[in-house]
Amino acid sequence: MVKIFETKIVAVGPEAEEMINGANMLILFGHGAPADLAEYCFTIDNKNLNDDIMSGGRLKIDDLEFTITAVGNLVNKNLSNLGHITITFDGSSQASLPGTLHVDGNRGPVISEGSIVSFWN
């Protein structure tokens, strides 16, 4: 597999961890997220995507790996332009929303400032 994207979590919104714990959703956003959304987001420092994220690829968060099961049709564009996607840990084979990426699992990981998020094809 080839790494196509890597970023670091540089800030954690006050409600971001609850989104993982309560809804199994991880929301990434580059610098400059709207204030009302930023409180639910993990802010990232990079939005340079080297290739399209695809089903069957891998998401790595620190030392944990997840298989990508579905990719919304705006995931690649939104990540490249805004650094913004939602990752849902539910194993769905169909994207629930255009900007949502689904991965295997039924529980999101513990993430903190300094965590590394990467995508592999």
TrEMBL record:
Gene3D superfamilies xrefs: Phosphotransferase system, glucitol/sorbitol-specific IIA component
A GO cellular component annotation in the UniProt record: cytoplasm
PROSITE patterns the UniProt entry points to: PTS_EIIA_TYPE_5
InterPro entries: PTS_IIA_glucitol/sorbitol-sp, PTS_IIA_glucitol/sorbitol_sf
MF term (GO), any: kinase activity
Endpoints of the signal sequence: none
Gene Ontology terms describing biological process: phosphoenolpyruvate-dependent sugar phosphotransferase system
Name of the protein in its database record: PTS sorbitol transporter subunit IIA
Record organism: Streptococcus bovimastitidis
